[in-house]
Amino acid sequence: MLDAIRKHTQGWLAKVILALITIPFALFGIDSYLNQAGGNVAIATVDGDKISVQEFSNAIENVRNRLQSEGQKVDTALLESPELKQSVLDGLITRRLVNKEVQRVHFKISDEQLNQHILTMPEFQEAGKFSEDLYQKTLQQNKLTAAKFESSIRNDMLTQQARDGVALLAFAPNAIADKALQFAFQQREVTTVDVKAVDFISQIKISPEQVKAYYEKHKDKFKVPEQVKLEFALLSAASLMGQVSVIDDEVKEFYDANAAKLQGDEQRQASHILIGFSGQDKASAKAKALDILEQVKKNPKSFEELAIKFSQDTGSATKGGDLGSFGRGAMVKPFEDAVFSMKVNQISELVESEYGYHIIKLSGVTGQSTSFEQMKPQIKAELIFQKAQAKYAELSEDFSNLVYEQSASLDPVAKKFNLQLQTTGLLSRADGAKFFKSDKLMTMAFSDEVLKEKRNSEAVEVSPNNLVAVRVVEYKPEAPRTFDEVKSGIESVLKLEQALKLATEKGESVLGKLKDGEGKETLDWITPVVVDRKNAQGLSNAVMNQVFKIPADKLPAYVGFANENKSFVIVKLISVTNQLGDDEESKKSAKTDFESALAAEYVSGYAASLKAKEDIQVNTGVLFSKSE
């Protein structure tokens, strides 16, 4: 049980799984679930209910935002990892299942509960109180009606109600919890030695008759699966990039609109003296500012003193006008333009903004800026790809229709869309699914319509912005491999099997002597390591699965097992210690973690029970395809 609990409670992956079946309190993720889901491709179906690629992508992005908000570094390799993708999809499937279950058992959230929850959401708090104005503005920004938003929150609260209800069932008596914790916090000092099968291969002789007999007995395993050679047409956004163009004005417009993001990580530290317009006419304010500016120019060292005396920016005046460090986009544009054009220790002329007249002193510069000329090639490439994506979206329907209407050949679609038809080598279903990253496309390739009637397949979006249609050029049915093709491989397998038997016999003999205290042989033990349930110290999973099963009542203790046709492994347990602190605070913290882990295990079991009752189909070709 503890191993299962540990799997659900350790690391970022577990946090992702649990987070995806709890209420998404961050409002800005809700719109993704409501409005942007529903792409043409289903990444999974839950009893016929589709989970779209768009919804999955939004969930991945929410994970990125969640981890970044926790201060964790998030790179592309992490987001593309099969483990995270599977976990995110599991979370979305679980949400579907729980939503269905709460409807079935008629869970209810009253209007009063809903209203109270929304009133306390941090997104709508201003000065510690609910702000109706902030609520309405936020809904408008996210293109949500109040009814749509409240319906979403109600559904999420129902899901949370079900999850919390299951978690509350988790209970372990103190005696059991204490014993489990003592076991969970154990450290064990161990060493291992391998009796390797390869060391016995020279002793093995396999006759031709044995090889032939094995072949005849397992002939059904030695088959070449049915294969097809495919001609295919690919419409992709990447291939359309040569058909679109971007002018310099478009690049500059994009750069200006996204300057805060594109102009590097440069930070500038500045101070200012502000003379505002309020309380006096503009001319008088300007005259006063010019007088102060003249004083500053005569004696730059008096800047701080004059800021304390005259600046009407109460937040910075007491600090000599110091505004600290800031990047682009943090200040009003006239102020920002002036600051980012100055040199260190330079005093500006008067800078007018909506707040008044500023006298600015630049104190320091950190980081690096990125100019328009430096960013121009990258922005241009991005804009070209965006246009290519738009063109791809426009042409996709025509491509799909023409492939279907002119089903006797792919030549018409190649000619109309200026595509080069390509041909694969012979592919099995499995090979083709890897090649195209689509199980669906290969199912079509082996269908009667495509295989026997020689028609084009339907157009399938095998990955975002890549649409493919195929037709069969050549077909090879399933056929057995000849004896000559496989005999050398069979001989190697039989030798290894026999060698492992000898290694196991030798290992068990040594193990028996060690347990009886009679082991006199010199064994090549590895350097002892101290492991716990989180830290394997380089030991394999197979060894770790044995380490904590060894009875520790008499030490040293031993266990042995055959390891994947490679060796017989002997594990020696040298000592056992416990790292659970004796102080009450440590014990209390550990017990809290245990209860949380147990609750997580209950929730996981609940989700698994729901999955067992439904028909769930996962499009693995889409799930594990690369985003590019």
What can you tell me about this protein's structure?
The chain has 628 residues and is α+β, with helices and mostly antiparallel strands. The chain folds into four domains: 202 residues, Porin chaperone SurA, peptide-binding domain (Triger factor/SurA peptide-binding fold, Orthogonal Bundle), CATH 1.10.4030.10; 133 residues, no CATH class; 120 residues, Chitinase A, domain 3; 106 residues, Chitinase A, domain 3. Helix content is 50%, strand content 18%. It has 26 helices and 19 strands. The strands form six sheets. A four-stranded antiparallel β-sheet has the order 16-5-18-17, sandwiched between helices. Strands 12-7-14-13 form a four-stranded antiparallel β-sheet. The protein has a four-stranded antiparallel β-sheet with strand order 9-8-11-10, sandwiched between helices. Strand 10 and strand 11 form a beta hairpin.
Distance between the termini: 40 Å
CATH architecture of the largest domain: Orthogonal Bundle
Number of distinct beta strands: 19
Q: What proportion strand?
A: 15-25%
Could you give me the name of the CATH homologous superfamily of the largest domain?
Answer: Porin chaperone SurA, peptide-binding domain
CATH topology category name of the largest domain: Triger factor/SurA peptide-binding fold
Number of domains: 4
User: How many distinct helices?
Assistant: 26
Shape: extended
Q: Over the alpha carbons, how many angstroms does the gyration radius reach? A: 34 Å
Mean pLDDT: 82
Strand order of the largest sheet: 16-5-18-17
What's the CATH class of the largest domain, please? Mainly Alpha
What share of the residues lie within helices?
A: 40-55%
Stretches with pLDDT under 50, minimum 5 residues: 1-40
Structural class determined from secondary elements: alpha+beta
Largest sheet: 4 strands, antiparallel
